[in-house]
Amino acid sequence: MIKHLTATAYIIAEISGKPKVLLHHHKKLGLWIGIGGHVEKGENPKEALFREVKEETGLSIEIMIAPRRNPIQTPVVNELRLPEAILEENIPRFGKTPAHIHLDCIYFATASNIGRLRMKEDFLWAEMSDLGKLPLPKEVQILAKRALVIYRTKFLR
User: Fold this and answer.
1) What percent of the chain clears pLDDT 90, i.e. is strictly above it?
2) DSSP state string for 60-114
3) What is the span of the domain harbouring residue 104?
4) Measured at the alpha carbon of residue 150, what is the angle toward residues 147 and 155, in degrees to the nearest 5?
């Protein structure tokens, strides 16, 4: 089966003093998910993530990272930030697009310029208590909760 590399962000921001996660309603899939898309030729997953988030929302993000010592950087090698998870997702056939698999690199991020968000009806800011009430796929609920917990623990952002 065909496999596509994708990148998704679970973006956290303080809204009215509460941390909330941004979700997007994907029209083709009919699901609430994080923000992201396909990695294009010439991009690594992190570059695709920043591009997709900017295109879809207008937001600039910063990836939340746990402290790490001495990442490898030489004139010819740059150690990339590992995603929080890599999901293998079965994507059903849609129109002329055959069924395929997404290898989805999941990142947790923050956004400080939320006033620039091009808010549409297909975006939703959800706090922790909302996640159990929304019609979310199980993996989205788990990842959104993880992102909120990591945000609260004040990892480096």
Assistant:
1) 65
2) -EEE-B---S---B-SS-BPPPPPSEEEEEEE--BTTBPPEEEEEEEEEEEES-G
3) 3-152
4) 130
Please tell me the number of Cα atoms within 13 Å of 24 on its side-chain side: 19
Is the residue at 157 inside a domain? no
Residue 66: its pLDDT value, please?
A: 64
d(CA 69, CA 145): 27
DSSP 3-state percent helix, strand, coil across the chain (nearest 5): 20, 40, 40
Cβ neighbour number for residue 35 with a 10 Å cutoff = 24
Domain-located, residue 74: yes
Task: Please name the residue that has the structure tokens 């999901």.
Answer: 87
User: What CATH number should be reported for the domain holding residue 117?
Assistant: 3.90.79.10
